[in-house]
Every structure is written in C-alpha cells, then in structure tokens.
Amino acid sequence: MEFDFTNRDHGEFLLEEIDLTAQLAAARSLIRRQQQADEELQKEVADIREAAMKASGEYAMHLENTWVDNMHAGVFQDAAHSMSALGMLAPLVETLMTAIFRAIGREKLVAVADLKELRSKLKADELWDPHVVAGIASKGKRKGELTKSTDILRGTVQLAELTGLEAHLPADWQVRMEALFRYRNRMFHNGFEWPVDERAKFDEDVAGWPDGWFLKSERGTSKKGIMEPWIFYMSADFIRGTLKMIEAIIEAAGAFVIERSAKSRPPG
Known about the structure:
- This protein is mostly helical and 268 residues long.
- It contains nine helices and four strands, in the order H-H-H-H-H-E-E-H-H-H-E-E-H.
- It has two domains: 12-110 and 164-264; 111-152, no CATH class.
- Helix 1 packs across helix 9 (236-264), helix 3 crosses helix 7 and helix 7 (173-190) packs antiparallel against helix 8.
C-alpha cells in the first residue's frame, strides 16, 4: 500500500524532535480559555455600566466606581493574557525555526558551499543556528573580515534566503516575526507598563504593520489632556494569524524537503 504524504507530513518528519501538534493544541486551548475570560469580564463591565445609568443617588455612584474599577482591572487582565499568549507563541516560533535549520544541516539538504562565503566560515555549531548573523566588516582594522552578531530575526532571514527555504514560506512571515519579537522584547523586559519612550517607539512600529495586529489602551498624561499610548496588546486576529503562520512554516519545511529530495534524486 502506498501513502501520499503531504507537505505537513514531511515537515513533521523533518522536525520529529519536537511535538508540534501537541504544542499547538495546548497553546490554542489556553488562548481560547483566556478569550472566554475576557468576554465574560467585558459583559460584566457592560452590565455594571447599564445598571449605573439606571440607578440614582449613592447607589449610582457606587456602581459608577465599581465600573471604573472593573475597567481598570480589565486593562491589566488583557495585558496579562497578551503576555501569556506571547510567552507561548514567541518561543514556539523561535524553537521551530531553530529546529528547521538544524534539521536541514543534519540531513544535508543544503551543502555548506551553498551558504556562500558569508556563513560557510562560521564554526560548525554556528553554521545552522538562526540566532547567529554572519557579516563582513566594511570599515576599520577588520575591514573584509567575518563578523558575527546575535539576532534571531536577522539570522532566520539570512538562512532562509541562503538555503532557498524563503521561497516556500508564507508571504507575511518576516514582518509577522518582526512584530512578534519586537513586542516580546518589550513585554519581557518591561512588563505591562513600558517606559514612555518605549511606548512611543512601539506606537510608531505599529503604524507600519497591518492594521489590527496590535491594540492599545491610552491615557491622558499631560496637562493638555493629550491621550498617549499606555499598554499594548496582541489582537485576537494577530494571535490567530501567528498560529496559522506556524502551521504554514511546518508545511513550508515539508515542501522544501520534497524539493531538495527531487533535486538530489538521480535522473531516470
């Protein structure tokens, strides 16, 4: 009996060291429960607001204060849930890309010579590591010499281009990974409330990405009453899109395996 293996099958075979299906299922389960909790809090806040509008006197004031307190709590609940989802998605994407390139090297799907002079001079443990970015010094005493830096996004882009994997990856993979890792760096280093200058910089970043990827709470912090960014969240659309991107990357890895296998197969 012959089996027609899909791109997804080949991708999972290549990445057999990690159980991607189970990881994705666990992430989706927790994210779904968090979204349900958010919806419940939103309904509770709306109900309190409606009751406050119908009440009068001290009771109306009490309900108004309760509504404000719940609104404030909701801001931080949203931030906590965003960080929780981020804490699953960012490491999963990083692990996935690291495993793909490690497997490409292990299975010799791409020859070291194909990585060009740029990466071929790296040490064996750095060659297929997407955290490592290879470059050539353009000035100073080291002009023309190999340089190395650490950046998971730039290293992934470099390896994807040199190996040819990029041709199979989803169209928005690079900008989505950039957004995910920039948000991760700020959230994990600064918590929910970032320094004011970091908020302003990320607000500029968000303006350059597709609409609806990130949401924000604002508050007036100046005497002029100007509303400024306060707390940022990944939107439900961005989270769903990132989960789909992970699935698409697994399929891309499988398509890459099939392509490389066909090229290495003797004719006839």
